[in-house]
Structure formats: C-alpha cells, structure tokens
Amino acid sequence: MLTIKTSDELAIMRQAGRINAEALAAARAAIRPGVTTADLNAAAEEVLKKYGCYSPFLNYPGPYPYPASTNVSINEEMVHGIPGTRKLKEGDIVSVDCGTVFEGWVADAAFTAGVGEISQQAQKLIHVTREALKIGISKMVEGNTTGDIGSAIEKYVRSQGMHVTHTYTGHGVGQRMHEGPQVPNYGRPRQGVQLKNGMTIALEPMVLIGTSETRVMPDEWTVVSADRTLTAHFEHTTAITPNGPVVLTVLEDDPDYGLDTTKQL
Predict the structure, then answer these.
(1) What is the pTM of this model?
(2) Disulfide-capable partner of 66 in 60, 141, 172, 252 (CB 3.0 to 4.6 Å)?
(3) How many CB atoms lie within 10 A of CB 131?
C-alpha cells in the first residue's frame, strides 16, 4: 500500500522522526568497549518511553515476534541483529536501527559507528554508506523514480569498490512501518515507481565490502555478509515535498548529512 500524506500528517511524522533521532543519539552516546548490545537497546528505549512512544520493531511478525525495540548489528552483521549480552570491543563497528510510533505514525532510521579506534577500511565503509544515503536522498523529488534513487546509490557504491545488497530494500513508511513502494539500493534510471509529493520513504543503503551476498543466522533474524566481511547501514525517513526532500529523522539543530533540516513540509 502506497500512501500520500497531508501536511498535517507530515508534521506528526516529523515529530516522530525527532523523537527517533533522540533515541538513536542516546544509543550512539552509549557506544564504548564493554557495553552490551542490550545496553544500546535500553538507551534508545528510555527515550521512547519518555515521550510515551514505542518501537514498531518490538513484536514485529517474523519467524517469531521480534524481541527488542532496536536492531543492533556488529561488524559482519548487516541488519536485524537482536540485542543481547554480546559486548562491544575496541575496533568493532556497530549499526543501530530504531523505529518510533508517535500518535499512530512511524519514523525509522539507522546509523553505523565505530567502537573506539577502527581500521581505515571500516572508516571508509562508514563514509561510503553515509554518502550513499545522501546521494539517494538528493534524488527524492517528484517526477523521479525509485530506479533513479537505486541507480545513483549503486553507481556510487560500486565506484568505491563496494557492494549493495540486492536482498533487502528501503520502503515507504507512514501509519505502518512497511508501506509501498519498495526502494532497492540498485536499479535503472526512469524505472520503478514514480515519486510524488507527500510520499515518505525510509531509504536505507546497506553496503558490504566483500560481495552482495548475505545469509540469515540460526536465530532466524540476524542477516550477515555471506563472506563475513564488514557491512554498514544508514537510514533516514524522508518526505518528498514541493520544497525538495525533507529528512524527518533528525533533530532541529542537527547538521547531519549537510542537509537543510528546516525546510517547510
């Protein structure tokens, strides 16, 4: 189902997005060696509870109900890592994905960060994945297509000697966490669904160093690179508006991604 949001609905989603950004900021601030993935989940949950919100991830249907409010994925774990007792180590990279439901509307975002000092390869991976998201967001204007977004992302990532997953995609978001359209991180220009003002999309490049192949671990949720090389994941919920793309999952004073976060919806 693909939905077009009114300006009032987008304003609520922006509030959801700012709460989600605060939750992710709390998780990021907790990252250090010795902290568990459950600790990062708890930091994000505390913010959601402060605002009377909850995560749409919790109890999300799957092989069994998802048991946490966030995904916390380390190193070769690309997405859907279940928070638990695993401790972060110096040199790890960790991805945190969080969703927020506020007044019935959903926001969804993710980031990857290093734990202490990380390798140059890991630094480049994080930079490339963040830049891929910026490039994809820049294509989110009325009249473009999902293929325009995916093509631009994949072209950039491949130019850096890395790969995007062909198995997991971005998606529309609104009163449900997963709405239409699906937005792959690959594609052909002018192909796919045409973008319209009022659409909201959670765009999420997932980048792998080795190959594009992935596997699901025995816990039936965690997705890893097939060759166990490093992966990274960045995501923002963004609205398509007459003023251009408006990122909803950032704080008002957040200079993240060098994008204007004050645009009118």
Answers:
(1) 0.95
(2) 60
(3) 18
CB 185 within 8 A of CB 132: yes
Q: What is the pLDDT of residue 254?
A: 59
Q: Which of 199, 40, 35, 203 is nearest to 108 (CA)?
A: 203
Among the residues of the chain, which ranges form H helices?
Answer: 7-29, 37-50, 120-138, 146-159
- Indicate whether 263 belongs to any domain: no
Amino acid at 249: T
Nearest 5°: CA angle at 108, between 107 and 110? Answer: 145
Q: Which residues are paired to 194 by β-bridges?
A: 145
88: domain range? 7-251
pLDDT at 257 over 80: no
Collect all residues with Cβ–Cβ distance below 8 Å to 185 and sequence separation of at least 6. 132, 136, 150, 153, 154, 157, 164, 165, 169, 170, 204, 205, 206
Say how far apart CA 243 and CA 57 lie, in whole Å.
Answer: 31
| Residue 210 forms part of a structural domain | yes
Is beta strand 170-172 parallel, antiparallel or unpaired with respect to 236-241? unpaired
Residue 44 lies in a domain: yes
DSSP state of 190: T
Per residue in 137-174, pLDDT (tens digit) is 999 999 999 999 999 999 999 999 999 999 999 999 99
Number of domains present in the structure of the chain = 1
* CATH code where residue 65 lies: 3.90.230.10
Asked if residue 256 belongs to a domain, the reply is no
Please calculate the CA angle 138-144-150 and round it to the nearest 5 degrees.
Answer: 65
CB of 81 within 8 A of CB of 74?
A: yes
- Average of pLDDT values for 31-38? 99
